[in-house]
Amino acid sequence: MTDNTQDLNTILVRYGEIGLKGKNRAGFESALVRNIRTALAGTEGLHVFREHGRVYVKHHDASGTVLEKLARIFGIVSFSPVS
Questions:
Q1: pLDDT, tens digit, for every residue of 43-68?
Q2: First to last CA, the chain
Q3: 4 phi and psi, to 5 degrees?
Q4: Could you tell me which of 31, 10, 23 has the C-alpha nearest to residue 76?
Q5: What is the secondary structure of 23-82 as a DSSP string?
Q6: 18 DSSP 8-state letter
Q7: Residue 2 above 70 pLDDT?
Q8: In Å, how far from its chain's centre is CA 26?
Q9: The pLDDT value given to residue 1
Q10: What is the CA radius of gyration of the chain?
Q11: Given pLDDT bands bounded at 50, 70 and 90, which one contains residue 36?
Q12: CA pseudo-torsion sign 52, 30, 44, 12
């Protein structure tokens, strides 16, 4: 069995004010993850997840379409490729 996750591009998504909402933070982060999944629906090999207060997007799309769509999602302040 091969590990296909090594073939994925990873993006760290930074969000703004939702991180300051205290007890509601988890709900706002979950909503952001849902919005990302909805905006990127149909993208091959997509995996969006939260880990340690951060949101990551792993995908197979090398065309930049994912980045263009992320730039239009409300709540995202910035994003960067990570390894």
A1: 888 999 999 888 999 998 767 889 99
A2: 22
A3: -75, -10
A4: 31
A5: GGHHHHHHHHHHHHHHHTTT-TT-EEEEETTEEEEEE---SSHHHHHHTTSTTEEEEEEE
A6: G
A7: no
A8: 15
A9: 40
A10: 13
A11: very high
A12: negative
The tokens describing 71, both together, are 């730039």
As given in the structure block, the two tokens for residue 67 are 């980045």
State whether residue 22 is helix, strand or coil.
helix
**Which of 58, 31, 26 has its CA nearest to residue 45?**
58
pLDDT of residue 73: 95
Reading the block at residue 46, the tokens are 């997509």
Residue range 10-35, pLDDT digits in tens: 999 999 876 666 788 888 889 999 99
What distance in Å separates the CA atoms of residue 78 and residue 30, rounded to the nearest whole number? 17
**Tally of CB atoms within 10 A around 50:** 14
Contact 59, 9 (CB under 8 A): yes
- 34, 3 in Cβ contact below 8 A? no
